[in-house]
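Journal club prep, notes for RB
We'll compare a predicted complex against what the paper describes. Inputs for the nicotinamide-adenine-dinucleotide case:
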Amino acid sequence: MNYIAQIREAAELIRESAHCYCLTGAGMSTESGIPDFRSPGGLWQEIAPIKTSSAEVLYNNPRVFYEVAFTRFARITRAEPNAGHSSLARLEQMGYLKGLVTQNIDGLHVKAGSQRVWEVHGHLRSGYCLGCQKRYPFEFLVEQVERQQIPPSCPSCNHMLRPDVVLFGDPMPPLFYEAWEELAGQCDLLLVCGSSLVVYPVAELPALARKLIIINLEPTPYDHLAAVVIREKCGRVLPAIVELLEA
Ligand code: NAD
């Protein structure tokens, strides 16, 4: 199938589905200037994220966590949604998308206007105290780190603060199981955008859908099960699908 036929087929499947959901990964945000993990030039080639973004590093070596992983997180908050994010928000607004599960912590789906979003690896809008659990805006942590107060601490009880993201070694949050149940009960079509589908347990979600559309630059382990596989950029494919559905 050529590219035009693939776009048409994808739009048709979305039009016909009753409960279409979307699953996004880091590839969704590369066009917003945020590197993914596994592409050439991705973060895994820079410094293995597991060495800086893990719960173990946060608890045992907070300086490394805050100077490397957290500083990268802080940069991500300056990114803006791209045409792919806006198109997914539009698909939900048009009634075609029932909800969106994302592995991304960048918050760009929320910024783009998507309403039903399960950010299953957390987000960069807030943090909390490991002692009294009090929540603070993410900016509050950033301000302390910029003043070299590392690790940032809670003004009420002086314990360390951490961002609301799921680090390597953290358990998955209840939100993940909520998304799992919703997909298992309802999903007749899952639109996968920009994910290598190798990071578990999120990579188990496509198995819950009755049909799959995969938009990803590189092959994924689910390609042979998908109704349509499009090896193109999300920022090109998604607006084209919206255009067909609006016509
Ligand atoms: P991944 O890096 O494993 O895979 C990304 C995939 O996206 C790759 O296969 C790549 O070919 C593809 N891709 C890159 N740019 C694309 C584009 N414009 N259009 C279509 N495809 C594109 O990422 P993953 O599957 O999300 O899993 C890894 C983990 O990365 C997740 O746990 C996630 O939390 C974390 N992560 C998140 C961010 C973010 O918040 N933006 C950034 C880096 C990593």
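Talking point for the session: The radius of gyration is 19 Å.
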